[in-house]
Design brief:
Number of strands: 7
Distance between the termini: 80 Å
Number of helices: 18
Structural class: alpha+beta
Strand order of the largest sheet: 5-4-3-6-7
Shape: elongated
Oligomer: single chain
Helix content: 55-70%
Radius of gyration: 29 Å
């Protein structure tokens, strides 16, 4: 049998899903029996072997087979069938976070040659992930921007990528953003990192006009980046306007923190403190909120709130110490001698946060008098004041992760709004005490 016939045999084994047998056949019948130069020239044989290595989870072996065994490289003359298989191999190595060694030239070559038209799905899956890997691995923002800038938006697909995956015996449909949507998201992030804030805003505006349907909350995240860009340009009123809308839709603690930082920069310490306290009471790991506690301490008056400043900064440093992070030196003197218990300090600062929100934010206080429906979309009534009652919905509760029962104490604001086509007085921005 000549090499071509062996190639057909390996192809048949691959089609039958007998990937290990195909690899064993190559070892027994081909490897060492034919010149490597002849094997290299059989593009489909090489691609099929790389496919079988990939299907058996031998991603690094597939890369070594391509680079070391056959001494191939990613060149302009490399056939598309080999390029595509190489892209897939690197994608799966990246997916498993196992891309070690020095692959700088290979990664750069892929980023410069992978094509959105010819490599459709693998481009959508891999290009932006590989670009992010390149940016973080080699810390080279300018070259990352050059690579991304080579793309022509008109050549990128506007269709979302939909495919089915099997998990626990069930089929799940996964929808990924289109190439165009991902391009706008990544380009805006990169321009922000490069401190090209006006360009960042322009790209986001183009995205909001171009993309008809966003995925993964990308419309919200793009607007968030736009607000942060305005803040960096000291256009605080525009930044605040956008961030207020965002926190009205999504209650993540870090969004309130960012809004607090913008208010602080604008000189509005009261609104900064309010939003920082709103951030603090949101669900979220305590060790993630270290810089938030330090922000609140900065917003407090050391002369009149000396003990509270100590509580926040001592809590921050205790968390740093617990996680073996570098301790921070603050511009004010703090006394942590009597503050060595994280749970006690957490209770102290939470009491301050709730007191601040109750005093400074125009919040009413009351108790849940009746729950109409349970669950995420549940609702009920709150009793307050002199036998007054107001309707509320569960999804308007800010700190939703806590237990919820009748008799629960609440802080809330009241608004007149349209609900199901009728005028209605409702509670909003509710806080469970």
């Amino acid at each position: 049998m000549d090499l071509t016939q062996h190639s057909y045999k390996i192809k048949d084994l691959k089609k039958e899903g007998k990937h290990n047998q195909a690899l064993e056949y190559y070892k027994q019948k081909v490897n060492g029996k034919y010149p490597l130069a002849e094997i290299r020239q059989n593009n489909y044989l090489v691609a099929n072997l790389m496919f079988c290595l990939r299907k058996t989870g031998k991603f690094e072996a597939a890369l070594k087979f391509f680079k070391s065994h056959l001494n191939l490289s990613l060149t302009p003359g490399l056939k598309q069938v080999l390029k595509s298989e190489l892209y897939w191999v690197v994608y799966y190595i990246l997916k498993d976070a196992k891309l070690g060694g020095d692959y700088r030239q290979l990664i750069l070559g892929i980023l410069q040659t992978i094509d959105p038209k010819n490599d459709g799905l693998v481009f959508s899956l891999m290009f932006f992930k590989l670009l992010d890997f390149w940016k973080n691995k080699y810390n080279d923002l300018e070259s990352t921007y050059t690579i991304l800038a080579r793309l022509n938006i008109s050549e990128l697909s506007s269709q979302a990528n939909t495919f089915d995956i099997q998990k626990n015996g069930k089929t799940k449909t996964v929808v990924l953003p289109s190439q165009q949507e991902t391009y706008f998201v990544e380009l805006s992030k990169l321009l922000f990192e490069l401190k090209k804030y006006q360009q960042c805003i322009d790209v986001i505006d183009e995205a909001l006009q171009t993309i008809k349907k966003f995925h993964l909350n990308n419309r919200l995240w793009l607007n968030r980046k736009k607000a942060l860009a305005y803040s960096a340009m000291e256009q605080y009123s525009l930044a605040i306007q956008i961030m207020e809308k965002i926190t009205g839709q999504k209650k993540d603690w870090f969004l309130y923190k960012e809004l607090a930082e913008i208010y602080k920069k604008s000189g509005n310490r009261a609104k900064a403190t309010e939003n920082a306290c709103l951030a603090a009471i949101q669900p979220g790991r305590l060790d993630y909120k270290v810089t938030l506690f330090e922000l609140i301490a900065q917003l407090l008056d050391k002369n009149t709130d000396n003990k509270l400043v100590d509580s926040y900064l001592c809590l921050a440093n205790l968390i740093r110490k617990k996680n073996n992070w570098a301790l921070k030196k603050y511009n004010v003197e703090i006394n942590c001698q009597n503050h060595q218990n994280i749970q006690q300090l957490t209770a102290t600062v939470k009491a301050h946060q709730l007191h601040t929100l109750g005093q400074n934010s125009g919040l009413q206080s009351g108790k849940v008098s009746k729950i109409l429906h349970q669950g995420k979309n549940g609702d009920g009534f709150i009793a307050f004041g002199d036998k007054q009652s107001v309707y509320f919905k569960f999804n308007d509760i800010i700190n939703q992760s806590q237990s919820f029962i009748e008799g629960q104490k609440m802080l809330f604001k009241i608004k007149n709004t349209k609900y199901k086509g009728k005028d209605k007085t409702m509670a909003y921005e509710l806080i469970i005490l």
